[in-house]
Design a protein that fits this description.
heterodimer, A: 114 residues, mainly beta, six-stranded mixed sheet, four-stranded antiparallel sheet, 12 strands, B: 121 residues, seven-stranded mixed sheet, 11 strands, 4% helix, 50% strand, globular
């Protein structure tokens, strides 16, 4: 079975500061990795994904994430955040098989303060 | 591209009634659709997976007689909450993924609808 751990339930940060949202996963098989963002009362929007290849993945809105297989991590980073980045961020994994089911972490609320 | 819509966006119903939520892929054919529910300040929990033309596969603990899923076409899946009760109040989100050669480049990616807020009084 797969599991995803987002240790930080909330991360407060000042505008223009850098931020890292942590994600660790557990799986006995190879997985794909995703980061999604959810704004209030909305569905999820894909920020970025790791399928294969380069371990540094760049996504939308200036976010990037690095896949570290040895540490089973996929931390999300942004060098300078904006007020508009305030949202809930979910890390997710999907097995590399035909099911494509996503297993989500518990989410991290990024709160950007002026 | 890859837009998924849900209807309605919000619905309030009385306890004991049934509610149908539609999920549509607007510009692609979705071979597989997924239904999630999300309680306030919590993560998404997968309820079921539906493939076009076949019965849905429900996750453990999800009552298939209560949450009826129909995936009648490659662009439409519906979730019917039967005999709704206040504890069914939640945010329901669907997602869809493509299949075949066109979907190979998007392997494993799901596109999410905007969600439906269900309140049972």
């Amino acid at each position: 079975a797969q599991s995803v751990t987002q240790l930080d339930s909330q991360v407060p940060v000042f505008e223009e500061a850098p931020v890292e949202l942590r994600c660790n996963y557990s799986s006995s098989v190879s997985v794909y990795l995703f980061w999604y963002v959810q704004y209030p009362n909305q569905g999820l929007q894909l920020l970025l994904k790791y399928l294969s290849g380069s371990t540094l993945v760049k996504g939308i809105n200036g976010f990037e994430a690095e896949f570290n297989k040895s540490q089973t991590s996929f931390h999300l980073r942004k060098p300078s955040v904006h007020i508009s980045d305030t949202a809930e961020y979910f890390c997710a994994v999907s097995r590399m098989d035909s099911s494509y089911k996503l297993i989500f972490g518990s989410g991290t609320r990024l709160l950007v303060r002026p | 591209g890859a837009v998924v819509s849900q209807h309605p966006s919000r619905v309030i119903c009385k306890s004991g009634t049934s509610v149908k939520i539609e999920c549509r892929s607007l510009d692609f054919q979705a071979t597989t659709m997924f239904w999630y529910r999300q309680f306030p300040k919590q993560s998404l929990m997968l309820m079921a997976t539906s493939n076009e033309g076949s019965k849905a596969t429900y996750e453990q603990g999800v009552e298939k007689d209560k949450f009826l899923i129909n995936h009648a076409s490659l662009t439409l899946s519906t979730l019917t909450v039967t005999s709704a009760h206040p504890e069914d109040s939640s945010f329901y989100i669907c997602s869809a993924r493509t299949g075949g050669l066109a979907g190979a480049a998007l392997l494993g990616e799901q596109y999410f609808g905007p969600g439906t807020r269900l309140t049972v009084t």
